[in-house]
Design goal:
The protein has helices spanning 35-45, 56-67, 81-89, 95-103, 124-127, 137-143; strands at residues 11-19, 25-32, 70-71, 108-112, 116-120. By secondary structure, it is of the alpha+beta class. The longest helix is centred in the middle third of the chain and has 12 residues, at 56-67.
Length: 144
């Protein structure tokens, strides 16, 4: 998200090269940020700025993929809490979008990560136990 800030607004404190275990050289740069810049990065990385609103089912799928997962929450005062998370990031969100992504499009699936959550199908192989990794993603989607 640092790329969203203008380079001239960020002070480079130091820059060093490191060698990774696999022999790759990594460039690590330390930046000095103002409190406002740090706040801007945090808000943008959580898709909470209105600068680029996501829309429709595709927007919901992109939101879940970007966030990594969406914890399913049973607390419901107005609506279940995971719907609030999507409403704040996708202004035209409707609960049917999430249902369609899980049940019809199969671009999102439910899984017990550290809690029950919705995850993007592109992360499916990360959560498949090692002994079943020879099964294709299509096979797993059929089983869902």
């Amino acid at each position: 998200m640092l790329s969203t800030l203008r380079r001239r607004d960020v002070d480079v404190v130091s820059s060093r090269q490191y060698v990774a275990n696999n022999g790759d050289t990594l460039q690590m740069t330390q930046f000095k940020l103002s409190l406002n810049q740090a706040r801007q990065i945090a808000i943008q990385s959580q898709l909470l700025s209105n600068s680029n609103p996501l829309a429709g089912k595709d927007g919901v799928a992109q939101t879940i993929e970007h966030l990594g997962y969406l914890q399913i929450d049973t607390i419901a005062v107005v609506e279940r809490a995971h719907h609030h998370t999507l409403w704040t990031r996708c202004p035209d969100y409707q609960p049917g979008f999430l249902h369609d992504l899980v049940a019809i499009d199969r671009r999102v699936f439910e899984y017990w990560a550290h809690a029950m959550a919705f995850l993007s199908a592109c992360r499916l192989t990360t959560y498949v136990p090692p002994r079943t990794r020879s099964i294709t993603i299509i096979d797993i989607l059929i089983l869902m």
